[in-house]
Write a structure and sequence with these properties.
With 480 residues, this protein is mainly α. It has 17 helices and no strands. It is found in: Cell projection, Cilium.
Length: 480
């Protein structure tokens, strides 16, 4: 049992016997046993199977100063006092990269530390950079150990950065004191600090309440802890548990080996399949090349048909162009014919309108001539001559004369002959506007007839010197 414990926990047989003897005296638990053995281990021994631990070779003060300086510089990770008990190259590399970036943000340092050559190159690059830029000489061997000696080397860099930060803080403090002396208060910059203080106060309250609850459970926990410590140590059960754990680990190792062997067999089968697929691919490529080199039997006929198709397509394109040209010419011809027809129709309409205007002017001029003949006064001598030259006729009464005149004027003013001649000369259908103009002309002619009838009647009331002069009226009718 002593040999087993010494092999597992990495302590000497003499130390195991001593610790077991102390345990039998004080009846402590296995946890306190191992802890006491570790605490009583001399300098130069460790729990890592006899590997020399460097935590005790460096001073506690240096490690404490290093952790405090890194915290003051703003390193995001919390560095514990136990991080450098064993070599921890990953943490050392991370700290060195952060320090180099803090000193020169734009520097280019390789961060790959997976292999031994990469770690050596990384340490050399950091040492060269700090020697050239900051004039700080670093021991590369101690840095590569990644233990307490590396902390001493990194402390050189952190001391420079920490002193610079303190100097800057002192300068800022002096400036703040000067501003306070000048009674210049900047409350805007303190608002964020006030919010942070309120948040911290609420967190302190919640943490205090949770701590009070936990302390209230201390009585029960103390009893449970005392009972667990007072329980006697059973060596047989401990040995049995350890053997079971070892057996489980061995089973896991066997399973892992089986999985590795299966992976190897799977890899071999996959390699065989890949090789087979490659051979099939090569055969298919050769077959494709042979098929491409052989000319098909129908290729000549295909080329001949393709040439004929090209010729037919050229003929089709030519005919299609001719058809489009002829269609455009036909559309142009129809457009010109339509323009000519519209022009002829407009010409006929203008001629019709012009003839109607001329007829209206003639009718108006004839009516004016009749009115002028009726209104002209004649003397008695002329009347007597007219009566002598013409045979005597019976004088009709006034009413008969007026009726005859009225009938004669009405027949002449309607213009039946002119309407018939107009209908015979113009073959184009009259529009609605022409009908309206014809109605207006008829109304005007009727008004003129009424005026002509009223004129002679009013003049017939007065007795004329030469009588009614019927021959004069007949001459005027003949002239008209």
């Amino acid at each position: 049992m002593v040999q087993f414990v010494s092999a597992v926990f990495g302590i000497t047989k003499k130390m195991c016997l001593k610790t077991f003897r102390d345990h039998l005296r004080s009846s402590r638990t296995p946890t306190t046993l191992v802890t006491s053995s570790l605490k009583k281990a001399p300098t130069g021994t460790s729990t890592c199977s006899g590997v020399r631990c460097s935590h005790f070779t460096m001073s506690f003060r240096d490690l404490r100063n290093f952790t405090e300086m890194m915290r003051a510089l703003g390193y995001p990770r919390l560095i514990s006092m136990e991080n450098f008990r064993t070599p921890n190259f990953t943490l050392v590399a991370e700290i060195l990269i952060w320090l180099v970036k803090r000193y020169e943000p734009n520097t280019d340092i390789p961060i790959d530390v997976d292999t031994e050559s990469d770690r050596v190159f990384f340490i050399k690059a950091v040492a060269q950079f700090m020697a050239t830029k900051a004039h700080i000489k670093l021991n590369t061997k101690r840095l590569y150990q990644a233990d307490g000696y590396a902390v001493k080397e990194m402390l050189k860099i952190t001391s420079v950065l920490y002193s610079a930060m303190k100097t800057k803080q002192m300068a800022l403090g002096d400036r703040v004191e000067e501003d306070n002396n000048k009674f210049k208060f900047d409350l805007g910059s303190r608002v964020s600090d006030l919010k942070a203080a309120r948040q911290l106060a609420s967190e302190v309250t919640s943490k205090g309440a949770s701590l009070y609850d936990l302390l209230g459970k201390e009585v029960e926990l103390r009893e449970m802890r005392t009972a667990a410590i007072a329980r006697p140590l059973e060596i047989n059960e401990t040995e049995k548990a350890l053997r079971a754990a070892i057996k489980e680990v061995l089973e896991n190792v066997e399973k892992t080996k089986d999985m590795l062997s299966n992976v190897v067999s799977d890899e071999a089968s996959l390699d065989a399949k890949i090789e087979k697929k490659k051979q099939e691919l090569e055969r298919n490529r050769k077959r494709l090349q042979t098929l491409q080199s052989v000319r098909p039997a129908f290729m000549d006929e295909y080329e001949k048909i393709e040439e004929d198709l090209q010729k037919q397509y050229d003929v089709y394109v030519e005919k299609f162009r001719n058809l489009c040209f002829l269609e455009s010419q036909l559309d142009e011809y129809h457009r010109l014919e339509q323009e000519r027809f519209e022009e002829a129709e407009n010409t006929l309409r203008m001629m019709q309108h012009k003839l109607r205007e001329e007829e209206r002017d003639l009718m108006r001029s004839s009516l004016k001539d009749e009115d002028s003949d009726i209104d002209v006064p004649e003397d008695e001598g002329s009347d007597s001559d007219m009566e002598e030259s013409r045979p005597s006729k019976p004088r009709p009464t006034r009413n008969g004369i007026m009726a005859g005149r009225g009938a004669r004027f009405i027949g002449n003013m309607q213009g039946g002959d002119s309407d018939e001649s107009e209908d015979s000369e113009i073959d184009v259908d009259e529009d609605d506007e022409e009908d309206e103009e014809g109605e207006e002309e008829e109304e005007e002619s009727k008004d003129l007839e009424d005026d002509s009838l009223e004129g002679p009647v009013s003049r017939g009331a007065r007795p004329s010197r030469g009588g009614m002069r019927p021959p004069l009226m007949e001459e005027s009718d003949n002239d008209f």
